[in-house]
Design goal:
The protein is of the alpha/beta class. It is about 40% helix and about 15% strand. It has helices at about 15-25, 45, 60-65, 95-105, 120-125, 130-150, 165-175, 185-190, 195-205, 245-250, 265-275, 285-290; strands at about 5, 30-35, 35-40, 55, 70-75, 110-115, 150-155, 180-185, 205-210, 260. The strands form two sheets. It has an eight-stranded parallel β-sheet. The chain has a two-stranded parallel ribbon with strand order 3-4. α4 links the parallel β5 and β6. α4 runs parallel beside α6, α6 (about 130-150) packs across α7 (about 165-175) and α9 runs parallel beside α10. The mean pLDDT is about 95.
Length: about 290
């Protein structure tokens, strides 16, 4: 299997994006994501305690920040809230479209999004059919923009519908566009109650990116009731998820794309890179950095 391994650009809390990229470069990675995004001005960036990339900034500044450190952007994350009512203060259709346009401008092929868990009484009261409809309705224009910009939007298991094979299939079928694919997240799918291997088998070449996480046994009691965790704190191969089985399943479908470690902590990050390097993945110069 030929796949690259990059790093989630949110490895140290309360630090600016430049710091995150410096850490990723110093570890020896050559790939990273645009991870945390938002509209307009970001006060946390000005005062030095957040790593948010503004969707309204010049995307070429973002590209230069990565390139100056020898990093290639492999995806642009635009996680959203598609089950609650649309509102100016909720990340949804408008922000995904901005992410698509920004990604297209600097040659990033994939924008990753999800539906998220509902937080309002309205969202929590939706029937399954209503939920699928509202997700697809809010994705319809972003997908159309993605088609015109040569970008693919990828659905990540990070909510009650994207965390299931049936839910993903219903969304992909209803939207009906090749500009909508799948980002496999090994930890989120498992936590949501679905074996990530089943997602690989179900969606095959519609999987265009992979997020790596392993989770410890303390997460088992939450399985099927939580639909996503931002980061894992343990190295791949040391938890309860069958990561080797996922690698085999990806090999079987001929996967040869980018992947990202969503893992925090130096030892866990470097141990995960070594784990994947030992299975034939391209981890850049991480082994040299670890020594």
């Amino acid at each position: 299997m030929s796949m690259s391994v990059g790093c989630f650009a949110l490895v140290d809390p309360f630090s600016v994006l430049d710091h995150q990229l410096d850490r990723i470069r110093d570890w020896g990675f050559t790939y990273a994501d645009v991870t945390d995004t938002g509209d307009g001005a970001v006060l946390g960036n000005h005062f030095g305690f957040s790593a948010v990339a503004s969707l309204d900034a010049n995307p070429y500044d973002l590209k230069r920040a990565f390139e100056e450190r020898g990093l290639t952007i492999t995806s642009w994350c635009a996680h959203s809230d598609l089950l609650d009512p649309a509102a100016p203060w909720r990340y949804g259709t408008s922000q995904i479209i901005k992410a698509v346009r920004g990604a297209a401008a600097i040659g990033v092929e994939h924008v990753i999004t999800t539906e998220g868990e509902p937080t309002t009484a309205w969202g929590k009261g939706l029937t399954d059919d209503e939920a699928i409809f509202t997700i697809c309705e809010k994705l319809a224009e972003p997908v159309r923009v993605a088609e015109d910009h040569g970008v693919q939007i990828l659905l990540e298991p990070h909510g009650p519908y994207t965390a299931t094979v049936d839910g993903l299939e219903r969304i992909l079928t209803r939207v009906g566009s090749e500009a909508l694919g799948v980002n496999l997240d090994t930890g989120n799918s498992w936590l949501g109650g679905t074996d990530p291997i089943d997602i690989v088998k179900a969606f095959g070449d519609r999987i265009k990116h992979v997020h790596w996480k392993d989770l410890g046994p303390e997460w088992e009691e939450h399985r099927g009731t939580m639909f996503g965790c931002g980061m894992s704190t343990i190295a791949l191969g040391t938890g309860v998820i069958d990561i080797d089985g996922v690698i085999k399943a990806l090999t079987d479908i001929g996967y040869s794309g980018h992947t990202t470690l969503e893992i925090a902590g130096d030892e866990a990050v470097l141990g995960s890179a070594e784990y994947l390097r030992g299975r034939g993945a391209d981890v850049g110069n991480v082994a040299a950095a670890a020594s």
